[in-house]
Amino acid sequence: MGSREGRKQHRQQHDLIPLAALISKEMKNEKMGKPTVKYGHAAQSKKGEDYFLVKTDCQRVPGNSASTFSVYAIFDGHNGNAAAVYSRESLLSHVLSAIPRGLGRDEWLHALPRALVAGFVKTDKEFQRKGETSGTTATFVIVDRWTVTVACVGDSRCILDVQGGAVSDLTVDHRLEDNVEERERVTASGGEVGRLSIVGGVEIGPLCCWPGGLCLSRSIGDVDVGEFIVPVPYVKQVKLSNAGGRLIIASDGIWDALSSDMAAKSCRGLPAELAARQEALRTRGLKDDTTCIVVDIIPPENPLPPVPPPKKQNKLKALFFWKKARESSSKLSKKLSAMSIVEELFEEGSAMLAERLGDDHSLAQSTSGLFTCAICQVDLAQSEGISVHAGSIFSTSIKPWQGPFLCTDCRNKKDAMEGKRPSGIKVA
Predict the structure, then answer these.
(1) Can you tell me whether residue 238 is helix, strand or coil?
(2) Where is the PPM-type phosphatase domain positioned along the sequence (predicted)?
């Protein structure tokens, strides 16, 4: 009897699925459920200060195509294009260098918000060293399967239009005119907020920060305005349902003419390329640059209607195609509306680095065994690093000697942004 029971238990043990097989099965299921990502972009240049970045072949693990993610960004420059050009060339690498190596996908996504903060601040710090006075907004979007992470400074916007008709903003506009919290932060840090005063004391124009006259409270660059104009981004991370969604990323030239709802509704049913073209080229009366990127995150079993091959066609045929596309999209929207749930994973807009870089010091150690600056990633001896929490009333850590740590240069940058000391950068 006992022997028979033992054989039964032995068979049950052999019936168990090995862990490796379970993981392999899970990976296959994830691969089957991976969305298709399609994009389109268009631009109309008036001043030559808008720049964009599209990179669809980034990899979390070099050489592993299963770890591919996409990056889409718009940089709207002002007072010249130097800051926009530098940000387009440098911001992505600065963000990725702030993420520890060897992380799994979930850990990598969890580390992204803090890395985006570090990357934005490092980009600003490195550009300001050049002594050029231009500045730029930055709206930076990372799409990894169904997860979308957005970071922004300035007033270039990213909206999400999900199947079923819900439209939501994934960014916050940092315009002094509209953002009371930012006005209070700027004045508390040593800036002055007001309108341009002309002869007779008459005030005109939008609320601006003085000195400099910038109407934004956050940007990259703008060394001549004051360090209280900070590069610390608002960051939001969401996970889409398997109904997918559409991202519309655009410079303020478009948002000056359209609300988020109007922009989303006006191009529903159009493929991404046509949608971007319609948004960017519709505002011909404006004097500002207009740049638009449309990103469709498409369920694998419900692809959007394909764009027809280029050929000569009359306006009636083109209108017929657009109508068919809209009708198809409308039917799909109704079918999937019940599944259109967006899960918020992270949202934070504080300008205080002590809050944004956190108090988890386990990620602050480099592979060499030394500690690294949380912003510029230089190695620090234990006696050199200054905790981001040291002397900060905003600290979430009860032990201000714990990390993450900053080098002396980045600590000075932090203090200047918070109005604790004047900026050490001078413009000739």
Answers:
(1) strand
(2) 31-297
> Which is it for the CA torsion 120, 272, 54, 107, positive or negative?
positive
Closest CA relative to residue 135, chosen from 66, 72, 226: 226
Q: Distance (Å, rounded) from C-alpha 221 to C-alpha 349?
A: 19
> 120 is written with which tokens?
């934005």
How far does CA 368 lie from the centroid of its chain?
30
DSSP H helical ranges for 197-314: 252-255, 260-266, 272-281
Per the CB < 8 A criterion, the answer to whether 11 and 3 are in contact is no
* Contact partners, residue 280, CB within 8 Å, separation at least 6: 41, 42, 43, 44, 250, 254, 290, 291, 292
Indicate the pTM of the whole model. 0.81
| Chain-centroid distance, C-alpha 197 | 36
Place of tokens 């005119």: 177
Q: What's the CA dihedral at 304, 305, 309, 312 to 10 degrees?
A: -130
The residue among 356, 366, 406 whose CA lies nearest residue 102 is 366
Ordered by where they begin, the domains of the chain are 34-174+216-351 (3.60.40.10), 352-423 (no CATH)
Q: In terms of Cα–Cα distance, which of 219, 201, 199, 200 is closest to 209?
A: 219
Residue length, the chain? 428
The Cβ of residue 162 has, within 10 Å, a number of other Cβ atoms equal to: 24
Each residue of 399-428: pLDDT tens digit?
Answer: 556 678 899 999 999 999 988 866 544 444
SS3 69: strand
For residue 363, give the H/E element and its range. Answer: none
* pLDDT digit string, tens, across residues 290-310: 899 999 999 987 544 444 444
- Cβ-count burial of 104 within 10 angstroms (0-12 exposed, 13-18 middle, 19+ buried)? exposed
CA distance 30 to 28: 5
